[in-house]
Amino acid sequence: MGNLLFIIALASPVIMILGIAIKFYRISKMPLNLRWEIYPLPHEAEEKRKYGGSYMEEVDWQDKKPERYFMGEIIEPLKEIFYLHRVKKFNPYGIWIWSLALHWGIWLLFLWMGILLINGVFNWEIASKLDFVAYLSYILGILGILGLIIKRVSTHDLKIYTSGIDYFNLLFLLILFTSGLFAIMKDNGTDQFLAYLNGVLNGGVPVHELSTITIVHFVIFELFLIYIPVSRFFHGPVKYSTFHSILWNDMYQIKSSTEEKKISEQLNYKVEWSGPHILSHQTWLENAQNTNLHEKI
Questions:
Q1: What pTM, to 2 d.p., does this model score?
Q2: What distance in Å separates the CA atoms of residue 45 and residue 69, rounded to the nearest whole number?
Q3: What is the C-alpha to C-alpha distance for residues 233 and 224, in angstroms, rounded to an integer?
Q4: What CA–CA distance (Å, rounded) separates 70 from 67?
Q5: What is the predicted pLDDT for the residue at 139?
Q6: Any idea of the CA torsion for 292, 293, 296, 297, to the nearest 10 degrees?
Q7: How would you classify residue 286: left for phi > 0, otherwise alpha for psi between -120 and 50, otherwise beta?
Q8: TM segments (predicted)?
Q9: Within the chain, which residues score under 50 in pLDDT?
Q10: Is the peptide bond before 40 cis (omega within 30 degrees of 0)?
Q11: At CA 189, angle to CA 188 and CA 192, rounded to 5?
Q12: pLDDT per residue over 12-57, tens digit each?
């Protein structure tokens, strides 16, 4: 049993990292997405960000290297990650506070696991002094999940768009946070966490020294790591591509560039679906050139 737990503990982060890498590789090979170019863009100069301006307003802009405010592209994602400001601003169903609690529960859970790892690797006695991070993580996670479940069940517009996998994911996280809270609340909860992690670092989990709830919590956490790349939890890592390649990319197309070649290739894709304005089984280019939208040619 101890050897199996040891293997799962080592394999789970490796599988997560490889899974995320494979996902990003596949995304890089996908057809180009339509750019949104919704201004203001965070990488524009401050005076242009105030009113949604663009470098293309400048005289002879094509002959100049566009100035980029790179801190804007760092600050904006951080606001989304740690504050969910788009959810707060645009979601009308009151889920922001619950979603924020859940996300902070997850961030703090990873921080807590990092604290345990540092404690074990460097033999620093910090876990017992920082175990409030674990309590905060588990409590915020549980409150956030319960709030989101209630909102999704009681709000009609949310309920009709919530699928079975959404409820599964929330229940999965609820078990993760609840098991962690019960484990850390034991008299020697932090010591149990350290014993598990030290066992992994030393080549074998001491099963007989650990409580069942501690083992269950770590196994669920490791399954969570494995599940991330193949689940909707992957929306976090993939936001980088969404923001930088779709939302904010306003670079002009250069003759004979890789992007131009991809666009030319995609314009020759066949349209395999139908509609009153679509020429089925013809290329996207032929569809774009068809000005008789209501006449099939």
A1: 0.89
A2: 6
A3: 9
A4: 9
A5: 98
A6: 40
A7: alpha
A8: 6-25, 95-120, 132-153, 165-185, 205-230
A9: none
A10: yes
A11: 85
A12: 999 999 999 999 999 888 888 888 878 888 988 888 888 999 988 8
Give the separation between CA 205 and CA 8, rounded to whole angstroms.
11
| Token digits of residue 107 | 């961030």
212-227 and 2-29 helices, crossing angle to 10°: 20
Q: Is 189 exposed, middle or buried (0-12, 13-18, 19+ CB in 10 A)?
A: buried
Cα–Cα distance for residue pair 51/46, rounded to 1 Å = 9
Residue in 177, 179, 112 with CA at minimum distance from that of residue 149: 177
Phi, psi of 270 (to 5 degrees): -80, 140
**Which position has the token pair 């999965």?**
172
Both structure tokens of 281? 């089984």
Residue 64 exposed, middle or buried by CB count within 10 Å (0-12, 13-18, 19+): exposed
Q: Tokens 């490791």 map to which residue?
A: 222
d(CA 134, CA 176): 12
Residues in the chain: 297
Percent of the chain with pLDDT over 90: 61
pLDDT computed for residue 291 by the predictor: 74
- What pLDDT, on the 0 to 100 scale, is given for residue 296? 56
Query: What percent helix, strand, coil does the chain show, rounded to 5?
Result: 65, 0, 30
The tokens describing 146, both together, are 């319960």
pLDDT at 49: 86
**Integer angstrom CA distances of residue 78 from 236, 266, 279:** 12, 33, 43
pLDDT at position 297 = 52
Q: Residue written as tokens 């013809």?
A: 282
Alpha-carbon distance of 206 to 204, in angstroms, equals 6
- Full set of structural domains in the chain with CATH: 2-247 (1.20.950.20), 258-289 (no CATH)
